[in-house]
Amino acid sequence: MSDQKELEKELAAKEAVKSVKQSQIVGLGTGSTAKYVIIELGKMVKDGLKIQCIPTSTKTAELATSYNIPLIDINTVNHIDVTIDGADEFTKEKMLIKGGGGALLREKIVASLTKEEIIIADASKKVDKLGKFTLPIEVIPFALNYVQHQIVSLQGKGKLRMNNNKPFLTDQQNYIIDSDFGLIDNPRVLAEKLNQIEGLVAHGLFIGLAARVIMGVGDSVQVFN
Ligand SMILES: O=C(CO)[C@H](O)[C@H](O)COP(=O)(O)O
């Protein structure tokens, strides 16, 4: 990973944490960009910020705990004030592909409960059309073959994500099918079609969920509202 990309991620994270206020419930994203948010919030908590956080993965929970960031159970809240998460691709309309790190299901649930979902990214994540990054689709193992056929019937090519010669398992013990639909002309329509498939528990198209995208670019940030 280039130093420039890391700097852009860090700048975006530093800008995003300015939205976190005293006593808020905060969703914590997953991935190498969201990591910078955890580092910043760790410093802010040390300096007296009182927040309660909801992690989107076990990995994020572990990282947050290592920075003494207080965590709470998502089932104890009815809303989340602000969530800061990364993305694999985004457009200027704030449509996203997420799930490269395999946390898409929890990330989508957290985003759905969130009043202000802030996405942070380095400049390489901005695209005119989604779909160069293969779309992660989380599926219950029982439905793997069925969902793979449904992806083909939608003109996609799905590949089961592997880890050490075994299927990659999500935090929910599901599989991921990384799916190539080419450049996606209408993400909303594809999302609706995928939502109809039984056994498919989440796909990485996040549409209408992000309130803002903060992109690090060079030594500054650009915000998409
Ligand atoms: O959706 C995600 C994890 O499920 C991540 O936000 C996405 O993969 C971006 O990760 P990174 O910041 O490491 O590039």
Structure write-up:
It is an enzyme of class 5 (isomerase). It catalyses: aldehydo-D-ribose 5-phosphate = D-ribulose 5-phosphate. The active site is at residue 107. Catalyzes the reversible conversion of ribose-5-phosphate to ribulose 5-phosphate. Its EC number is 5.3.1.6. This protein has helices spanning 3-16, 34-46, 58-66, 104-113, 144-153, 187-195; strands at 25-28, 52-55, 80-85, 89-90, 96-97, 114-122, 135-139, 157-160, 162-163, 166-167, 175-180, 200-203, 205-206, 212-217, 220-224. With 225 residues, it is of the alpha/beta class. The protein has two domains: 3-126 and 207-217, Rossmann fold; 135-202, Alpha-Beta Plaits (2-Layer Sandwich). A six-stranded mixed β-sheet has the order 2-1-3-6-14-15. The relative contact order is 0.18. The mean pLDDT is 98. Bound molecules: ribulose-5-phosphate (5RP).
Number of strands: 15
Strand content: 25-35%
Task: Write the CATH architecture name of the largest domain.
Answer: 3-Layer(aba) Sandwich
Mean pLDDT: 98
Return the structural class: alpha/beta
Number of individual domains: 2
CATH class annotation of the largest domain: Alpha Beta
Low-confidence stretches: none
